[in-house]
Amino acid sequence: QVQVVESGGGLVQTGGSLRLSCVASGSIFSINFMGWYRQAPGKQRELVASITSGNSTNYARSVKGRFTISRDNAKNTTQLQMNSLKPEDTAVYYCNVVARATPISVAMNYWGKGTLVTVSS
User: Fold this and answer.
1) Which H or E run includes 49?
2) Average pLDDT for 90-113
3) How far is 67 from 44, CA to CA, in rounded Å?
4) How many beta carbons lie within 10 A of that of residue 20, not counting itself?
5) I need a labelling partner for 90 at 20 to 30 A (CA). Which of 29, 37, 43, 109 fits?
6) Three-class DSSP category at 44
7) Residue 1's pLDDT band (cuts 50, 70, 90)
8) Which tens digit of pLDDT belongs to each residue from 48-73?
9) DSSP letter assigned to residue 15
10) Contacts of 8 (CB under 8 A, 6+ apart)
11) What is the 3-state secondary structure (H, E, C) of 64-120?
């Protein structure tokens, strides 16, 4: 089993910055994919940013140029640096990890419980 825990959310003013962190622990042989999703009240969960094991990144159009995702493969962690925050960035942010427990295991999808980011206007 794999546990995923996010941290770093909070309240910030428009234009401010926050850094989210996520750590995956447990039975992990390799992590194929790490991503950050967010869900605002009344809206569907959406992909914010993702990074592969080869450090290939992908960003939602709404955050490109403001957010930066990174990962530490040795520590099974990922960070999301969020700059120039806007009220519309307010949401619960979830970390998603796709990991294998052994070399022959099927890759499984794991989620954290989320961390709230609130951007005040």
Assistant:
1) strand 46-52
2) 96
3) 20
4) 24
5) 109
6) coil
7) confident
8) 999 999 999 999 999 999 999 999 99
9) T
10) 18, 19, 20, 21, 115
11) CCCEEEEEECCCCEEEEEECCCCHHHCEEEEEEEEEECCCCCCCEEEECCCEEEEEE
Token readout for 97 is: 């990890």
Instruction: Please tell me the distance from the alpha carbon of residue 77 to that of residue 72, in angstroms, as a whole number.
Output: 5
Report the C-alpha gap between 58 and 61 in whole angstroms: 9
Say how far residue 40 (Cα) sits from the centre of its chain.
Answer: 15
Q: Which of 11, 46, 22 is nearest to 117 (CA)?
A: 11
DSSP state of 60: -
89: its two tokens: 């960035």
